[in-house]
Amino acid sequence: MSYTIEIKPETFMVESLTQSFGQAHIPSPLRVSFQTENFIEDGKDRILVDISLEGLLKASRPDNGKILFQPSTFELAGPREKIFWNPDNLKVAIVTCGGLAPGLNNVVQNLVTFLSDRYRVKNIYGVPFGYQGFTHDPLTKRFAFGWRRLDSLSVQNIDFEGGSVLGTGRGHSNPISIVDALMLRDINILFTIGGDGTLAGANAIHEEIKRRKVPIALIGIPKTIDNDVLWVSKTFGFESAVGKAVEALRCAQTEARSAFHGIGLVKIMGRNSGALTATAAVAMNDIDFVLVPEVPIRLDGQNGLLNAIVRKVIDKGYITIAVAEGAGQDLFPPSEIEKDASGNVKLKDIGKFLQKVITDEFKSRNIETTLKYIDPSYMLRSQTTSADDSVFCAKLGQNAVHAAMAGKTGCMIGYAHERFTHVPLAAVALGKKHLDVNEPLWLSVLAATGQPFQWK
């Protein structure tokens, strides 16, 4: 992966409560409960952020006749030999925010079971309906929603369900009020599970905690089926969403193949990144057009999309189109920008737009066609996980617990080069990850579809 933002070694230095509140000196209970001696050593166990030759060369510079090598590196996630918190009197809160994704319950389940069974933590609470669950009256100290007491038994089999057993929600990210709530409930560790908006909110909460100089650890766990969070090669639920998207594409193709001049059009989630749409298309390997936010769409002209669609339908007899929800937003007339509760710009419906302009194009040419439009968006995010995603969720949850118990704070559990890492939330806020159109995934799309690199 190539990075367009400037990265420096200090960008990835993870904060720890040990820097202000004393060393981690308690022997890890994993020696007994997990029977392991495989502990990560801070400062020593790190991996490169950029493993490309170009990245290595950028990290090297001459210095007094020698080559000074200062690459940016991630701190590896995993258990530490000494932990910061005493499990006996520890209080932990877990919150799920933003939209749904396959695997939310799996992550919650693994957080709770690992805290309870391996670290012997007794006081674990689920915060309902995202950051809104911290809402309380500062005078009466009464909370708008009751928090849920969690243990290994209460989360048993929740991985069989889609959605979030805690409930989720957007917005309501008031760091001052949230830290007030954490202090009222004597919470020592907060796990936040969500996408870039949730993680940005978590970073603001972390900064408020630091401003007050209170010992509260905050660990983020990235959640987005768009796979657009920086420093994470794969997010939980992505693989499951790909499988469901492929099902929708197959249905659309069946409809198209069964009609004269049939067209199957499927809109797939992907606000800023076309990774989900592109991956599903490659998995099908028989999609004719793939439209993503990273590649501008030109409708008209000899080499435009509409003419290409007409030619393909006539030549092949039917076609299937996959379009990411964030594609082609510049095709709509300018209008007032609206945002949702998370601060995301509300997208125009590119699926219905294409349905109309494609149908109108065929009518204008007096060519018969049948177009079937499928929008499986909420089916993608509300399902349960695939087996591989379940394994991934388990590892995410376990590594988040390891980080928190060691006193790490203000960081997210990342995933790079097949290893789990600690990534400062400030580094996550540097931008969004996009589909790289020069990388193999998009080149595979072009090879499978035969569509041009750009619409000119």
From TrEMBL:
GO cellular component terms, A-Z: cytoplasm
Family: Belongs to the phosphofructokinase type A (PFKA) family.
Keyword set, alphabetical order: ATP-binding, Glycolysis, Kinase, Magnesium, Metal-binding, Nucleotide-binding, Transferase
Function per UniProt: Catalyzes the phosphorylation of D-fructose 6-phosphate, the first committing step of glycolysis. Uses inorganic phosphate (PPi) as phosphoryl donor instead of ATP like common ATP-dependent phosphofructokinases (ATP-PFKs), which renders the reaction reversible, and can thus function both in glycolysis and gluconeogenesis. Consistently, PPi-PFK can replace the enzymes of both the forward (ATP-PFK) and reverse (fructose-bisphosphatase (FBPase)) reactions.
Cofactor: Mg(2+)
Catalytic reaction annotation: beta-D-fructose 6-phosphate + ATP = beta-D-fructose 1,6-bisphosphate + ADP + H(+); beta-D-fructose 6-phosphate + diphosphate = beta-D-fructose 1,6-bisphosphate + phosphate + H(+)
Gene Ontology MF, one: ATP binding
Superkingdom of origin: Bacteria
Any one GO BP annotation for this protein: fructose 6-phosphate metabolic process
Listed SUPFAM superfamilies: Phosphofructokinase
Organism field: Silvanigrella paludirubra
Domain (Phosphofructokinase) ranges: 91-403
InterPro entries: ATP_PFK, PFKA, Phosphofructokinase_dom, PKF_sf, PyroP-dep_PFK_TP0108
Protein name: ATP-dependent 6-phosphofructokinase
